[in-house]
């Protein structure tokens, strides 16, 4: 398409966008798992208001827009509180989980270089860690070492210990990981790191805004946050279970002094001092405002209520899946991510039938699985989903393909 010679009126553009949007996933109908985390009309209204108010501003220069600096600071402080961070902790907002993870890896790399003279840095991640770590290793010049999973689908701690060398800059655990929803043994992993002065990152991109509230509901959530000695950084995405619109995550540091390894400062150009906390230069303001607004709108009470809906829906789905004799869950996930497979039917063929019925489930291989990420609004469709799943297990043909598919 070439840039049109003449402009198009808004009414026409609106109609065209609405028409094109009809091809997109029906997330409002609860048929997607992951990507969007609907939390109901009242939250949507708050998000629309914040986005509208801050659609034009630029968070590049916090001195020009002090309201943004204040809101970002408050989002970070509230997040640090949720993660039980100590008094001298610090952090910044980023555009999402991947950027927070990139910043954790950069911090660890710089810390290893400055404190231990490491010039060929390595990082150890569970095989189930999100690809953002591989991306970070690729961008930032670290060698990525993948540790295998134990039979419970959490990372094998002994294998991690074996992989440590003088060059290890970072060890990672997920809370929870994406593929199976398991929380790695964070205290054991962080202890290995702490003994050797190595940085340790908890990837709580998914869990950061869910696990603290499940814990308040009395769920047995394994230790994952700053209460675990040795955890140096944590990523927590406000645009996942914080229910903000996209573009909002927090990277938290146990000790705010390590932020110097994250932040980029430069004054060797005619424009004076240029400081940047993360990857982006110009930064959209709306995600900051949306994160701040939704956190204040929901408060602890609102988040606990939404976590209860997630927990109860997970229970319904787990019980339903486990009542289908051909199916079983992979692992024993403690939060909101589920992967299920089968030794009796071809689970990816079952996924094809579910596709045909309009459910968008991720496919996983090694082990073969269908994958779900449960959000509050799924309580409306859990029974319909299970009815379709029972049908799909009973009546499916050969699989159309065997490739894994993320989102
Ligand atoms: C465990 C985990 N970490 C990190 C990420 C990356 O987050 P983002 O897609 O916001 O970059 C995801 C995304 O699903 C995730 O599930």
Lay out the secondary structure:
Elements (H helix, E strand, L loop, with lengths): L9 H12 L19 H13 L12 H17 L7 E5 L2 H20 L5 E5 L5 H9 L2 E5 L9 H7 L4 E7 L11 H10 L3 E5 L7 H6 L16 E5 L11 E5 L5 H4 L1 E3 L7 E3 L9 H37 L5 E2 L7 E5 L5 H10 L5 E3 L4 E5 L8 H13 L13
Parallel strand pairs: 2-3, 2-4, 4-5, 5-6
Antiparallel strand pairs: 1-7, 6-7, 8-9, 10-11, 11-13, 12-13
The structure holds pyridoxal-5'-phosphate.
Q: What percentage of residues falls in helices of 4 or more residues?
A: 25-40%
Mean pLDDT: 96
Bound molecule types: pyridoxal-5'-phosphate
CATH topology of the largest domain: Aspartate Aminotransferase, domain 2
Look at the structure and give the CATH class of the largest domain.
Alpha Beta
CATH architecture of the largest domain: 3-Layer(aba) Sandwich
Write structural notes for this entry.
It is a single chain. The chain contains 12 helices and 13 strands. The protein has 407 residues and is an alpha/beta fold. The protein folds into 2 domains: 247 residues, 3-Layer(aba) Sandwich (Aspartate Aminotransferase, domain 2), CATH 3.40.640; 92 residues, Aspartate Aminotransferase, domain 1. It has a 7-stranded mixed beta sheet, with helices on both faces. It has a 4-stranded antiparallel beta sheet with strand order 10-11-13-12. A two-stranded antiparallel ribbon has the order 8-9. The longest helix is centred in the last third of the chain and has 37 residues. The model has no long low-confidence stretch (mean pLDDT 96). Bound molecules: pyridoxal-5'-phosphate (PLP). The site of pyridoxal-5'-phosphate (PLP) has 12 residues, from helix 4.
């Amino acid at each position: 398409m070439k840039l049109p010679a003449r402009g198009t009126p808004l009414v026409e553009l609106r109609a065209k966008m609405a028409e094109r949007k009809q091809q997109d996933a029906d997330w409002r109908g609860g048929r997607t798992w992951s990507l969007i985390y609907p939390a109901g009309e009242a939250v949507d209204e708050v998000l629309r208001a914040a986005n509208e108010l801050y659609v034009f501003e630029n968070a590049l220069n916090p001195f020009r827009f002090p309201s943004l600096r204040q809101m970002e600071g408050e989002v970070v402080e509230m997040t640090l509180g949720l993660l039980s961070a100590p008094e001298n902790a610090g952090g910044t907002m980023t555009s999402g989980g991947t950027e927070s993870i990139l910043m954790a890896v950069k911090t660890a790399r710089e810390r290893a270089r400055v404190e231990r003279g490491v010039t060929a840095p390595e990082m150890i991640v569970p095989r189930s860690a999100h690809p953002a770590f591989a991306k970070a290793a690729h961008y930032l010049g670290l060698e990525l070492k993948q540790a295998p999973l134990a039979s419970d689908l959490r990372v094998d701690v002994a294998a991690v210990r074996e992989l440590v060398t003088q060059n290890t800059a970072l060890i990672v655990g997920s809370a929870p990981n994406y593929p199976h929803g398991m929380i790695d043994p964070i205290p054991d992993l962080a202890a290995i790191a702490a003994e050797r002065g190595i940085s340790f990152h908890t990837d709580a991109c998914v869990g950061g805004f869910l696990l603290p509230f499940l814990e308040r509901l009395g769920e047995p959530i394994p230790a994952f946050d700053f209460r675990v000695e040795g955890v140096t950084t944590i990523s927590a995405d406000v645009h996942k279970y914080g229910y903000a619109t996209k573009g909002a995550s927090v990277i938290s540091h146990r000790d705010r002094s390590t932020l110097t390894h994250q932040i980029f400062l430069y004054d060797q150009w005619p424009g004076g001092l240029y400081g940047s906390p993360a990857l982006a230069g110009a930064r959209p303001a709306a995600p900051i405002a949306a994160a701040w607004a939704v956190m204040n709108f929901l408060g602890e009470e609102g988040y606990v209520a939404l976590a209860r809906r997630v927990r109860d829906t997970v229970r319904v789905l787990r019980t339903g899946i486990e009542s289908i004799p051909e199916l079983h869950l992979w692992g024993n996930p403690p939060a909101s991510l589920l992967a299920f497979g089968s030794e009796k039917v071809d689970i990816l063929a079952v996924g094809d039938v579910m596709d045909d019925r309009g459910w968008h489930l991720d496919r996983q291989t090694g082990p073969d699985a269908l994958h779900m990420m449960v959000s509050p609004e799924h309580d409306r469709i859990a029974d319909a989903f299970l009815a379709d799943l029972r049908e799909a297990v009973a009546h499916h043909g050969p699989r159309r393909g065997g490739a894994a598919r993320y989102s």
